[in-house]
Amino acid sequence: MILSVSQLTKNFGGLRAVNKVDLAIAPATIHSIIGPNGAGKTTLFNLITGSIKPVDGSVRFRDRDITGWSPQRLAKLGVARTFQRTSIYARLDVLENVALAIRSREGMTTSVWQPASAERRVRDEATDILAKVGLRGREAVLAGNLAHGYQRSLDIAIGLALNPALILMDEPLAGMSRGDRETVASLITMLRDTLGLTVVVVEHDVGMVMRLSDRITVMQHGTVIADAPPAEIRGNEAVRNAYLHGNFAQ
Ligand SMILES: Nc1ncnc2c1ncn2[C@@H]1O[C@H](COP(=O)(O)OP(=O)(O)OP(=O)(O)O)[C@@H](O)[C@H]1O
């Protein structure tokens, strides 16, 4: 397993938002976490990515205990995340957004203080990453002027700039048109198939999750109620009951 979560627990006051959660993520897979509103998905995600600390339990990445590590430390180890709201700088161009992330990975200061060769290397790498996510030809566009779907692709490019082995995505399809969702879904598949990355996705679009994922973990009231490949999840009665209004008809 590339990532293992064991008995992870987090309380908010009297509320146990994440309750003794176990999770095992296999390398080079797309593993989705779904569940109704308030199930604890985002809290679990934040516990894994280090933005909050658990009261109990542990998170392991490969052979290392990373429980409570900061996002910066995790990034150095190869764990990246993308956010529900995009983390792009709208007033910088597309290339510069990725270049910033590369410089930050390398601990470089602003470009004027760098030798030209170092800066060229950064820009070449940024250009390569943008090509991978389908943004070739859009390097000079101001990020804020990109269409919504492309902004999400840029977000993913920024994540890739950290050179991760594992990328965690918080609702990558949220608020998108059908066409944009298809674009981002293909991109996520490419991350696994072409780049060999492991992708963990928290997502509300159950229909897309079913098509996209190798494995799905379903949460309700802070606990895991099912963990299986999509075909099994589809037929799972506890999961059906957790979702009112027949979400699985999609
Ligand atoms: N910072 C916080 N302080 C207090 N309670 C919180 C906090 N964050 C989350 N909660 C509560 O913890 C529970 C789990 O919330 P969480 O956001 O993890 O669920 P979720 O499955 O991601 O839901 P959604 O699908 O609506 O985003 C909810 O009852 C929520 O109200």
Automatic annotation (TrEMBL):
It holds the Pfam family BCA_ABC_TP_C. It comes from the Bacteria. The keyword Metal-binding does not apply. Keywords: ATP-binding, Nucleotide-binding, Transport. InterPro entries: ABC_AA/LPS_Transport, ABC_transporter-like_ATP-bd, BCA_ABC_TP_C, P-loop_NTPase. GO terms for cellular component: plasma membrane. GO terms for molecular function: ATP binding; ATP hydrolysis activity. Residues 3-246 form the ABC transporter domain. This is ABC transporter ATP-binding protein.
